[in-house]
Amino acid sequence: MRSIFLAWLKDRRRWALLMTAVALLGAIWTATSSASPQETTQGRIPGPRQGFLAPDFELELLGGGSFVLSELRGSPVILNLWASWCPPCRLEMPALDTVYAEYQDQHLQIVGVNITAQDSEGAAAGLVRAMGLRFPIALDREGGVARLYQMRAFPTTFFIDAQGVVQRVIVGGPMSELTLRSEVEALLAGVD
Amino acid sequence: MYPVLQIGPLALQFPGLLLLLGVWAAVLLAERRARREGVHSGALSNLIFYALIAGLVGARLGHAMRFIQLYFENPLGLLALSPTTLSLPEGLLAAGLTGWIYHYRAGLPLWPTLDALTPGLAAVMIAIGLAHIASGDAFGSPADIPWAIRLWGARRHPTQIYETLAAALIFASTLRRPTPYPFPGYTFLRFTALTAAARLFLEAFRGDSLLMLGGIRTMQVVSLAALLLALLGMHLLATRTQAADSRLGL
Predict the structure, then answer these.
(1) Which residue of A has its CA nearest to B243?
(2) Radius of gyration from C-alpha coordinates of chain B
(3) In the beta sheet, which residues pair with residue B13?
(4) Contact check, Cβ <8 Å, A171/B142
(5) Rounded-to-integer distance, Cα A9 and Cα A5, Å
(6) Are strands B10-13 and B4-7 parallel, antiparallel or unpaired?
(7) H-helix or E-strand spanning residue B244
């Protein structure tokens, strides 16, 4: 088999035939397997990963009121899933707060989703007070958002563009302010 | 799918660990193969080491160039250990350029060096496939087939398994060095051709393809070009070796 292939490689005419056959078959396969945007993630299927539409949810906010993710469509959103007992979550909170204050005039939304099912509302409220956090905190009392977003580690942060598409997922932390700001700049510029 | 290994407070990225294992295997395989290709194994290890370091530096500088203002405000960010602030294209470019310059300066023969690196590259391709299985990346399009897997809200082609199996077969083909050896560069170019052909075929089942005009999948066009280039390279090297053999009366 190998000797036949090598003989074809060495013979100019046979090689030209081989190249033409490969190019033709490759082009036909490429053309027949072309896809419509609906068949790929560009079809906006909901899912907690890059390229998918961020799954929608509604939660109560710490301090009153409610929060619906899809109502923020039109603004880039950072969704930070956290718990008060998690050291990296606590360490990245000041950077999130600084970035929130800095980019508010550019309509950036940051929402901290406290996974209250694995935490306590009192501890979460205490941490928010102690750190003087300004961005809204939603309470996932039943753990529904943690399940919906297939959370596997604390913290997990989703960067969602103005169209509601997840552009980046960062699992673990703490994120540095530079990491956060570069992700926000990419979101605002509409680039990956 | 198992993207994160949670050990107490430590969240280890399982796909990243698999890739590191792949790189480690690649270094071992390259050193072993170097002797058979007549390449100095110490020089080859140095080439890999410098290319990896240059890749990391290039990836960070690439990220810094995209967000230059942020790095001006926080220059220490250049030294941060965060893998999220690395840019892959610039990293690959820097690694490739450094490897090229080192091979030239160290007097390493190009094609035997690439042949020696090939089993390692093939091992990395398996590691990439396994990393995709762990992370759920490179997923398939929705499909109604008995072997479909449930992933990201739909039953899909298990494209991560397809690519891992293809990479394993290609890896196996790189382990045996044919005798007589057809021409220097044969193992590398055959690996390139097979990998490109596999991607050209399997991309059709992916659900995350980047599309061009008319719904054409970009990676299929790139793979077809790589396949044709590899075949062209094989033809040129084969005929050159044949001509040299004829001159020597072999």
Answers:
(1) A10
(2) 20
(3) B4
(4) no
(5) 6
(6) antiparallel
(7) helix B218-247
DSSP string, A2-27: HHHHHHHHHSHHHHHHHHHHHHHHHH
Per DSSP, which regions of chain B are E strands? 4-7, 10-13, 149-151, 154-156
- Say yes or no to pLDDT of B105 above 60: yes
Residues from chain B that touch A151, judged by Cβ atoms under 8 A, are none
Q: Per residue in A69-85, pLDDT tens?
A: 999 999 999 999 999 99
* Structure-block tokens of residue A91: 């360490």
Helices (H), A33-107: 87-103
* Rounded to 5°, angle at Cα B175 from B170 and B177: 115
Count of pairs with CB atoms under 8 A, one residue in A, one in B: 132
Helical axes A87-103 vs A177-189, angle rounded to 10°: 50
State residue B180's pLDDT score.
85
Nearest to A114 by CA among A153, A150, A155, A152: A155
Burial class (CB in 10 A: 0-12, 13-18, 19+), B16: middle
Relative to beta strand B154-156, strand A58-61 is unpaired
Mention every residue, 6+ apart, whose C-beta is less than 8 A from residue A178.
B67, B70, B71, B74, B77, B80, B85
Beta-bridge partner residues of A59: A67
* Phi-psi sector, A76: left (phi>0), alpha (psi -120 to 50), beta: beta
* Residue A157 · residue A77 · CB < 8 Å: no
Model confidence, pTM: 0.80
Q: Is A6 on the interface with B (CB under 8 A)?
A: yes
Contact assignment for B141 to A26 by CB distance below 8 Å: no
According to DSSP, residue B80 is labeled -
Whether residues A30 and B234 touch (CB distance < 8 A) is answered with no
Please check whether residue B211 is in contact with residue B204, taking contact to mean a CB–CB distance below 8 angstroms.
no
Packing angle, helices A12-32 and B218-247, rounded to 10: 170
Spatial contact of A171 and A147, defined as CB atoms under 8 Å apart: no
Q: How many CB atoms within 10 Å of residue B228?
A: 16
Residue B76 vs residues B64, B70, B230: alpha-carbon distances, Å: 11, 11, 43
* pLDDT band for position B212 (cuts 50, 70, 90): confident
Q: What residue spans of B13-87 are helical by DSSP H?
A: 14-37, 41-66, 68-73
Spatial contact of B126 and B171, defined as CB atoms under 8 Å apart? yes
- State which H helix or E strand residue B218 sits in: helix B218-247
Cα–Cα distance measured from residue A59 to residue A67, given in angstroms and rounded to the nearest whole number: 5
